[in-house]
Amino acid sequence: MIDVDFEQLPFSLLEDDHRERLKAAMEMAFFEAGQVLLEARRPADYVYVVHKGAVLELDPTLPADAGRLGVYTAGDVFGALSVLNGRSRYRFVTEEETLCYLIPAALFKTLCDEQPAFADYFRQRLASKNRLLAERREGGVTMAGFMLAKVHQCMRQPLVLPSGGTVQQAVAALNERQADSLLVERDGHVGVITKTDLLRGLVDEGLTPASPALSLATFRLVKVPPDEYLFAALVSMTRHEVERVVVMEGRKPVGVVELTDVLSFFSSRSYVVGLEVERADNLQALSLASARLPELVRALMAQGVKMRFAMDLLAALNGRIISKAFQFVVPEAHQEHGCLLVLGSEGRGEQILKTDQDNALILDDAAHWPERDEHMRRFTETLLTLGYPRCPGNIMVSNPEWVGSLSDWREKVSRWAGQGDDAAMMNLAILIDAHPVAGRAELVESLRETLFQRCSGDQILLSRFARPSLKFATPLNWFGALKKPDQGIDIKKGGLFPVVHGVRAMSLEHRVRDTGTLARLNRLVDAGQMDAGFAEELGEAMALFAELRLRQQLARLEGEGGQDPAGLPGNQLLVDRLSALERDLLRESLQVVNEFKKRLSRRFHLEY
Description:
The chain is 47% helix and 14% strand. It is of the alpha+beta class and 608 residues long. Helix 3 packs across helix 4 and helix 21 (491-509) packs across helix 22 (517-526). One of its GO terms (cellular component) is membrane.
């Protein structure tokens, strides 16, 4: 009896009759420890599926330790590329007594010829494998149109009013089309007029039905192309605090997408969370909307939404919640004299579930705010009621150390840079991720420029800044296998942190203003500081780590007393609970992290 799960990848890509042919042809073979199964530069007679034991993948051209590329254990498949390419690039040797199922090379080639998706699986790069995993994860829906839907599938035809059109004509056009807004052009620029604008003009500004409507138009619009993802348009609406985007082809308006259209298109109550956040006009309503974020996260995960899009949406929603809380707590007279910053994963836009409060406040030098400390204490307490725990390191606006004028902050940057110790480098790292969510954004940009001027050209400081990227060992052993698969591995320390901080160090060196790791990678590629293919691998590795960690955190939320069913901390992954494909992806991703750490070591002259 063949003990292989043909419902799992890659065999699930085969049709039923192909699986039956495969089952009939597969045989089991026993191998002693140290036996060579595939020799480098030699043709392969079989593709191997490991039943029990372990097989090492070795590069014989490299020294013993450096040449150990990976290890294959129960459920893993190897030798496929050796068959497809006509010879093996590497040597495969059993590490211990091993049982393998053998697939004859001729049959494997035939299956690949007749089933292209099956052949493609073995040629996929890490990015493609991650997409395949997301689409086929147990219990999930494939992209289900959710991520594949484009703006043009949801947009309304534009209702355009002539530039000389009157208020009466505008009202009649809106009523006829049952629309909430119309477009108007002036000197080649497109503006929008809403029903609210028309009412304001008639009631507050004394316009008559015969008055020109053009004076009511808003020309600062959020625009998207028709082939933009609809999900990205929803993120733009949330981030810019608007309820519509104008669809443009070049300089020509071709449609309008309203927030209600997007929510209706997605047809799930989960996506109404964004609307509830926007409509919240008091702390109680905001708290109710904020409490529904975990529900939204589960819905996104169930639909197989790509992690980077989920992070974008959740970061935008969390930013709006924090911004609204600030507006409710801080008197309006003080709001425009400073800038509220979010830091850490929130600042990078990489938070999914709510994490600890990490925030700071920059004030302009002329600000006079005697009640500032009391207002900041109340703001911290408000975020606590909204589900954002206190920061264990006390990096919050309720701590006066993280509040100050622009001049104060510039002095802190200079002092931290001069100190050069671990604590000072950590403070600089926290600050470089700062993202404005309320108040005057130009204050943080001015401070960022100060940080770049002081730090970007200082090679000794950059070396000290980058060193923590190597602080935590990657959870792979010398043979490329995952360490302690039955005890759990810390995916944050061993996987996420080296990528995030290493990219942050390179971004400080090259004055990259973006705060998100993926955006920083793109800028580094544009600047010629990183190969595009390797940057993509890093981004996909980071997305995998984030998803596996998120699933662990969701399990904790659903477990009794907030505990994960496996009894592990939120950052610990129990490897033997992962599927064969997930283990394969995790191993490949951690190997990418190891390569990145080597590059960082050479770049910043670190001891690796």
